[in-house]
Task: structure prediction
Amino acid sequence: MHIVICIKQVPDSAQIRVHPVTNTIMRQGVPTIINPYDLFALEEALRLRDAHGGEVTVLTMGPPMAEDALRKALTYGADRAVLLTDRYFAGSDTLATSFALSQAITKVGETFGTPDIVFTGKQTIDGDTAQVGPGIAKRLDLLQLTYVAKIASIDLDVREITVERRSEGGMQMLKSRLPCLITMLEGTNEIRRGSLDDALRAARSQIVKWSAADAGIEDLAKCGLRGSPTVVKRVFAPTARAEKAAQIDTTDKTLRDLADELIAAILTRQPALEHELPFDGAA
Amino acid sequence: MSTANRETPPPAAGRAGMKKELPEHFKDYRHVWVFIELERGQVHPVSFELLGEGRKLADKLGVELAGVVLGPPGEATWHAVAEAFAYGADLAYIIEDPLLAHYRNEPFTRAMTDLLNTYKPEILLLGATILGRDLAGSTATTLLTGLTADCTELDVDADGSLAATRPTFGGSLLCTIYTINYRPQMATVRPRVMAMPQRVDKPVGRVIQHKLAMAEEEVVTKILGFLPDSQSAKANLAYANVVVAGGLGLGAVENLQLVRNLASAIGAEYGCSRPLVQKGWMPADRQIGQTGKTIRPKLYIAAGISGAIQHRVGVEGADLIVAINTDPNAPIFDFVHLGIVTDAIRFLPALTEAFTRRLSPHNRDKLAS
Ligand SMILES: Cc1cc2nc3c(=O)[nH]c(=O)nc-3n(C[C@H](O)[C@H](O)[C@H](O)COP(=O)(O)OP(=O)(O)OC[C@H]3O[C@@H](n4cnc5c(N)ncnc54)[C@H](O)[C@@H]3O)c2cc1C
Result:
C-alpha cells in the first residue's frame, strides 16, 4: 500500500508576536513546527503501513526551510519525503495550494506508485481553513472522508475502507472505496517517538526536491497569487477595548463581601441577568 | 486565505490577479445565499445567525436573500424552509431527495454546485461547522472560486464586493479578504460569531424547487450507521447563556470541581482553556477558544485564565466578561469588563455560596435535583 501524507511547516503560533507599529508578524526567532494536526494523520499513515505493508511518502509545499519538517517526519518513520518548492507558489490561497499539491501527488504517484490513501491533517494552525484537504480530493477526483476519528478497517483486495467520522452531534460510520483522501481528526492517536534507526536514516536521507516544472506543473497561472481567487487586502491588529476592566477593590474585604460585591457589579452592568440566573430578587 | 508562506515576494505577474474587472460570464451573478444546514431533522442555529448577516449584505447590495435547503422529502425539510423565511430569507431554493437524508459529501456537493451554476448567486455563506466546512471546500474547488474560512466580520465594499474579515495566525492579526474576478464569493462563519437575528412572526417567501441529478448507485460512500453523542454528557457551550471556565491557574484537576460547582449553582455551562484539555483534565468539547468553541453568553466568568489571544477570540462575543486572576498584569484584564485580582481557588467557593444565598428556594431545589 502506498500512502501519501501532506504536512505543513507552520510557525508555532503560541510564540508569535505582532510588531506594534507595522502590524506585521515578527517571525524572527519564532520556532517552526509540523502543523500539530498533521501529526495525527502521519501517525495513522504509519500505523496503516505497519499493519498492511507498503510505504509512506510525506509531501509538503513550502520554502526550502520546510525541509526541516520533512526530516522530522522521516525520524517518525516515514519512508520518503518530497518538498515542492518554487517561487511560483508564493502567495497561494487554498485553491492554488490544493492545485499545486494535487499535481505533486500525481507526480508522486507516477514516480513512486499510485497512492491508495492521501492523508492531510484536519486543518492548519496558521491558516485554519480546513479547505486544502477537500480541495485536493476534488482536484484529484478522490472520495473525501473528512474529520475521520478512526479507520475501522481496510480491505485491500476489494479496495474498501470503513471509517468513523465525526459529524455534528455524533459519529458517522462510513464505507467507501480506495483510493480516497482522509483528513484526520485531532486526538485520535499519539505520534510515535520514532526509532533510532529511523533517526539515523532520516539524517542520511535525500529529500526529493521538486520545482513546479519538476512536478510536471505546466499551468503556472493556477499557482501562487495568480491562481488564487482570494486576495488579502488588509492585515490589521484587533482593536484594543477602549475602557480598561473595572477592578473590584479587594483591600480589607472578606471573601464573602467580595463575592456579594462582584454579584452586585455583574447585575448593575447586566440587569437582564436577573432573569437569566435563577434568583428570587432579594439578596 | 493564503496557506503558503508569504516570505518570498510573489512573482510580479501575480499582481494581475488584483485587477477588479469581473469577467463577462460572472456579471449576472446576483443575490446572497445562505446554506441552511439540516441534519437529522434539525436546523443548525448557525444558519439563522448567517441569515441575519446575509440580510444586511443583501440590503446593502439591494438584492434578495435566499436560503438553500438540501434534505430528504418530508416535513423536516419544509420546516427548514419555513425557518429560513422566519429568519429573513426572501426565497428558498430547495432540493428534496432521499440521497440528502444524511450528510455525504458527494450528493451534497453535487446538489450545491448544480444550484450555484443554475441560479448564480453573488455570495454564498455557510456555517464553519463540520458539515459546512466539508461541503464548502469541495464546492469552492469544483467551481474554482474563492472561499474565505471562519470569518468574523462580513461587509460589502463600495463597489459591491464581499469583504470577509477573519483572524489569522491564531488570532494575533485580522485580515480582510476579497474574491477577485470569481463568483460566487464564498465564506464560512463559525457558530456564535454573528448575533442571532429577530424571528419574524408571519414569514412568507418564494420557493424554488430543484431536482438532484444523481442516483444512489452513483454515490460510492455508504452510511453504515450513526452513533449520536450521548445527549446528557454533551456540552452545549456555544449556545449557553452563562458560562464559567477554569484555566491552568486552578493548579490541579481537583480544583476544577470549584468551576463545576459554581456552574451548577447558577445553571451555567462550564468550560476551560486549552492546556486543561491537553492535560486530560477536561474533554475537548469543553475547550473554549480558537481551536475550541466560540461562545457568546450573556455572562462569562474566567477563573485562572491568562487570556491568551487564542482564548480571547473565542470569548470576545460575550456580553459581560468577568475575570478572576491573581496576576493584575494578566492579559485577560485587557479585554474583560470586570476584573478581580484574587486567588480563584479561595474565591470560587465564596462566589458559589454568595450566588446560592440569592437563589429562591424553588430554584435551589430545581438546580439541586
Ligand atoms: C495553535 C494554538 C491554538 C490554541 N487554541 C487555544 C484555544 O482554543 N483555547 C485556549 O484557551 N487556548 C488555546 N491555545 C493556548 C493559548 O495560547 C494559551 O496557552 C492558553 O490559553 C493558556 O491557558 P491558561 O490561561 O489556562 O494558562 P496560563 O497561561 O498558564 O495562565 C494561567 C493564569 O492563571 C493565573 N493564576 C495562577 N494561579 C491562580 C490562582 N490561584 N487564582 C487565579 N488565577 C491564578 C495566572 O496569573 C495566569 O494568568 C492555543 C495555542 C496554540 C498554539
Remarks:
- The pocket of flavin-adenine dinucleotide is lined by residues A 13-14, 125; B 170, 247-249, 273-275, 287-292, 304-306, 308, 310-311, 314, 324-327, 330, 343-345 (CB under 6 Å).
- The domain at 242-360 of chain B is CATH 3.40.50.1220 (Rossmann fold).
